[in-house]
Amino acid sequence: MRHCNNALLAIAFAGVALVSAAQQPPRTTAPAQQPPPLTVDRDPVRSPDGNAPSQPREGVQKEGSGFILHTDVEEVVLPASVVDERGHLVQTLTKDSFQVFEDGVKQNIISFQHSDLPVSIALVVDNSGSMSRKRPAVNKSALDLIEASNPQDEAFVVNFSDEAFIDQEFTSSVNKLREGLSHIESRGGTALYDAVVASADKLAMDGKRPKQVLVLITDGEDNASTLNLEQTIRRVQQLSGPVIYSIGLLFGDEMSRSEVRHARRALEMLSTETGGIAFFPKSLEQVDQIAAEVARDIRSQYTIVYHSTKPSSEPGFRRVQVTAEEKGTGKLSVRTRTGYFPIVRKPKKSVQPQSE
Q: What pTM does this model have?
């Protein structure tokens, strides 16, 4: 019998967030003693004052030999991957190779990095009944991904079905992550969207690394969330991240063609809109190769920072496009998030001294 000694998903502000819940009773005890189920506000994309919520992640600056985050609502940070016509990662570009456009207007790049920056990672794994026989292979691949990443990365584990639980808080220990992934109680439905939003909120609040990534592994479509797909994407965009890599285990006879099509569309949109990739292996044997590709993609990203030409007080979604050109490389494709919502802040009142 397993104890929830890690954390329980709960509401933070008007959104969804993950918070620690120490020494919770076993999930399999009587209903009166179980942790309360995850509840989600139906409009989690606004804060109580009507503005976009949570803590913006809007800058990377160098300090000594490392990198730290700083908050500046007028800066926009874009993790970007570049591939050539054959789909191979291109890692030789400079700042001058890139152009950034926001709502069609060219922007001035103020900071550019191409180094293996540490990452805060959410491992969000489907724990529904249909995943029971797939979890050993999935867990191994997730750990291989972590071991292939930067040693300074931090990660936490979320197992979800119709509810979602943090089964390991942020750590750089592979052994602790292995233990968190081993907490398998395959049951219930699939509240995928709620788990993604709650995990993204936790990354925004508690992640300490310059970049943030969410790795989502599931074998079905959402059938238990309070949120829908559009609300989920909007919320992640309002948080200015994370990049979502989706691995859809949609093979086998468990799903109809229609269900597979809907599940595939949802995972592709979650990844495309945030600058990640959706993978659809044809067997469990391919998952380990995909995990290695995800780790390689994360470690090969460029980090582009620009000052928006629009005032931060101007609300609404801002669409971003990034292009890259370099002699001798042929046509290049840049993958990054499609846009963002600015953090709108009310101007502070100032008191003028009275003239004598």
A: 0.80
CB 349 within 8 A of CB 85: no
Query: Structural domains in the chain?
Result: 1-343 (3.40.50.410)
Looking at the predicted structure, is the pLDDT value of residue 104 above 60?
yes
pLDDT, position 343: 74
Section 283-298 average pLDDT: 95
DSSP 8-state class, residue 196? H
Residue 201 has pLDDT above 80, yes or no: yes
pLDDT above 70: percentage of residues in the chain: 76
How confident is residue 345, by pLDDT bands cut at 50, 70 and 90? low
What angle separates helix 192-206 from helix 229-238, to the nearest 10 degrees?
10
Q: Give me the amino acid identity at 346.
A: K
Q: What's the confidence (pLDDT) of residue 289?
A: 95
Cα gap 280→271, rounded to integer Å = 12
**What are 218's strand-pairing partners?**
248
What is the predicted pLDDT for the residue at 112?
Answer: 96
Q: What is the pLDDT of the chain when averaged over all its residues?
A: 80
Q: Residues of 257-269 as b/e, b for ≥16 C-beta within 10 angstroms?
A: eeebebbbebbbb
Chain length of the chain: 356
Instruction: Name, in order, each residue with C-beta under 8 angstroms of 175's C-beta and a sequence gap of 6 or more.
Output: none
User: Cα separation of 230 and 245, whole Å?
Assistant: 17
The neighbouring-strand residues paired with 98 are 324
- Please, what's the b/e burial string for 319-344 (b: 16 or more CB within 10 A of its CB; e: otherwise)? ebebebebeeeeebebbbbbbbbbbb
Spatial separation of the C-alpha atoms in residues 217 and 123, rounded to whole Å: 8
Count of Cβ atoms closer than 10 Å to residue 66 Cβ: 10
* Cα distances (angstroms) measured from residue 232 to each of 250, 270, 273, 308, 348: 21, 8, 11, 24, 31
Residue 289's contacts (CB-CB under 8 Å, 6 or more residues apart) are none
Residue 279 backbone phi and psi in degrees, to 5? -115, 145
**What does each C-alpha distance from 24 to 12, 34, 123, 182 come to in angstroms?**
19, 8, 21, 18
